[in-house]
Amino acid sequence: MAPTEAAILSNFLLPPAPLPTIISLQRFADLFPRAQRGNPQIQHLYRELQHQRALDTDHVKQNITTESKRGQRQMREIAKARRKSEQEDLATDQSREVALENEAFGHFSNQSMTAAHTLRSILPEMEKACSEIEAKIAGIEAGAEEVLSNLSTAVGDLSDLRYGRFNKPGAADAVGQEVLDGLRSLEQACDGVSAGQ
Q: 36 in the Ramachandran plot: left (φ > 0), alpha (ψ -120 to 50) or beta?
């Protein structure tokens, strides 16, 4: 588990804080001139400094607790702001989808029907939809048959060229023109297929 903010601050700021950890009484006394090292006031001064250090440590502990609470409050505010932002983004996305749907299908596509269908009202609607689909299928099949016929004619004309069967034997220039006409016919038939005719 990751350490908390309070644990990090406490481990960094508090363990080195007590005065005996930093300097012992003997080393503290060694900081004074030799003549004064035996003075009992040095021990009293050391204890006073130790007390001040303990007060400072308590103050740091209180600040760590306060900062930890502030950090938790900030995290809650950030999470709340993120949720609000995500909800706004979701609402924006939904409104964008509705706008696209309205543009594609008209303004009534996202509205519910005013009355539910009954068995009697749905059958005519379904028959109408079936007949419209059948008409579209018939149109597509007719277009496919026409394209197939055009392709067959163009391939047949090119086949005549391949096997040397020409409609006008003896006319060399006509053969070249007939080849070009056959290729153009094939190209138009293929363009008709790619254009969706």
A: alpha
